[in-house]
Amino acid sequence: MNFTERKSGILLHPSSLPSPYGIGDFGADARRFVDTLAQAGQTLWQILPLCPIGYGNSPYQSTSAFAGNVLLISPDDLITAGLLTEEDLGDVPAFSSDIVDYDAVRSYKLPLFKKAYARFQTEAPDNIQTSFAAFCAKQAFWLEDYALFTSLKAYFAHERALGKGENDWITFSQNTDNLLSDEEKQAYFASACWNSWPNALRKRNGNTLKKWSRLLADAITEEKFYQYLFSVQWQALKAYANAKGISIIGDTPIFTAYDSADVWAQQPLFQLDSKGFPTVVSGVPPDYFCADGQLWGNPLYQWKAHKKTDYLWWTNRIRKALEDVDYLRIDHFRAFESHWEVPFGAPNAIQGEWKKGPGIDFFHTLRRLLGDLPLIAEDLGIITDEVRALREEAGFPGMRILQFAFGNDKNNAYLPHMCDKNSIMYSGTHDNDTTLGWYASATEAEKDHYRRYLNVDGQDAAWDFIRLAFASPAVFAIVPLQDVLNLDSHYRMNRPGISEGNWAFRFHWGQWHAGYTEGLYYLATLFGRYPER
Predict the structure, then answer these.
(1) Closest-CA residue to 520 (of 462, 474, 437, 473)
(2) What pLDDT score was predicted for residue 125?
(3) What sign for the dihedral angle of Cα 451, 456, 460, 464?
């Protein structure tokens, strides 16, 4: 595990990159960002999960733990690959350069990808055909179920939008009479959630799966092709970054969305009832972020069932993730020690209880099967001695957040003088306000402590925090791009506990000044995180 060399970098999801197409992608501006990182002496680029987005456009509520978000595919690079033409782009809408309008992006980009698929079917050279076949064979362990799941959802959603499927509705409504409200029933059914499918499909009857795989063969191949395009473009971008000396820190959510290919395909690995609904769901109790706790709603694992398989699903998941990134942050690490279990249907996360996770046995198994693990433990929130002991025994660095450091406690664990080397120091994360926003809303005690700690007047809080993070003993220092650009609360990425208006931040190159490049380079070299030129 290479957590010995001091490094620094920037947290920015690819969706936040500039591009003409409404959302950041893996094209020219991503390569320009990599070039800018290199010029600024940064050797780390941290991203959020690359998986398909789900409820609220969140990458932490994905329909797959393995698939990629196809909205990040670059149309320009598809032109370079000969799968689109300039004429195919048509009149590009006047997208905002500041926020992602996901509905508008889908409306524009998905028809483009259909054109690319049509050209692939009729004109693709042999090398692309061969490469696609090799990708499908290598990734079959997750791709087959994901492509079938996605195609089935699209088919049933379309049929139901046309008013078809009355018998399915009657059966589903009767089965959920004492479980869901009428409004919830309509939402599950209209979205074609997998537990509203015909019973044989819901229970994955072998003959039924074969029948539908034949009926939807072209749609299934199309979904696989989109995942192939995603993989080719991302791997090219990763190779470009690695060649520039920049490592990618990825992120994997500990839980999966209920309406996902993983839960449908691996039902015995989750706590579900006989109708396929969760018996308990995930969340966290009241904390710094939310007074009512956070009710995430993901189904929880049957850890005994996972153990019986030698954690095969998880092993495949981590192996696949480490093909895509160089380091991997495990979101909500504390759940491996114990997780907050909330009854399905509860209105909030207050009335839950802690239940034990798999503990160190899980990580011993991963290490035995996968070798050394370049994992980072997201150990934020309510952290007990048992969680700290698990992280230390596993050997993973934890996270320290400067926005949590200041107040009245002179020995706060997040203060740099209390931080050890086996840590990752952040000014803030995607769940925090920007540092400029933090300072504007901080208590007087927090502001006073920060100013005295750094011997500053508070006029440049964002760059004060960047300097402090880089100077800390932590082996890695990561700062969100919003802090580099000195942006206020309007530009934060996520507001935990609020379901709408998140994950939409974008920047444009007019916000990046030459002084930021030189400032980052100066601090990286000053504090031993990058060798001087």
Answers:
(1) 462
(2) 82
(3) negative
Cα separation, 357 vs 341, whole angstroms: 11
Residues whose CB is less than 8 angstroms from the CB of residue 164 and which lie 6 or more positions away in sequence, other chains included: none
Cβ atoms of 276 and 265 within 8 Å: the answer is no
Which phi and psi (to 5°) does residue 346 adopt? -65, 145
Secondary structure of residue 278 in the 3-state scheme: strand
Which residues are catalytic, by number? 331, 378, 431
Residues 415-444: tens digit of each pLDDT: 999 999 999 999 999 999 999 999 999 999
Q: Which residues of 231-258 are buried (b: 16+ CB within 10 A; e: fewer)?
A: bbbbeebbeebeebebbbbbbbbbbbbb
Per-residue confidence (pLDDT) for residue 444, from 0 to 100: 97
**E-assigned strands of 412-532?**
423-426, 476-480
Average pLDDT over residues 350-363: 96
User: What is residue 498's three-state secondary structure?
Assistant: coil
Query: Distance of CA 270 to CAs 33, 115, 278, 296, 299, Å?
Result: 40, 38, 8, 15, 6
The angle that helices 217-243 and 206-215 make with each other, rounded to 10 degrees, is: 80
Q: Which amino acid is at 148?
A: L
Tokens of 124: 């693709």
The radius of gyration of the chain's CA atoms, rounded to the nearest angstrom, is 23
| Separation of alpha carbons 216 and 213, rounded Å | 5
Output the pTM of the full model.
0.96
Q: Among residues 113, 107, 52, which one has the least CA distance to residue 79?
A: 113
Q: How far apart are CA 312 and CA 142, in angstroms?
A: 12
Q: Residue 490 CB: number of other CB atoms within 10 A?
A: 12
Going by C-alpha positions, the residue among 231, 70, 60 that lies closest to residue 150 is: 70
Encoding tokens for residue 464? 């004060």
Residue 32 contacts residue 235 (beta carbons within 8 Å): no
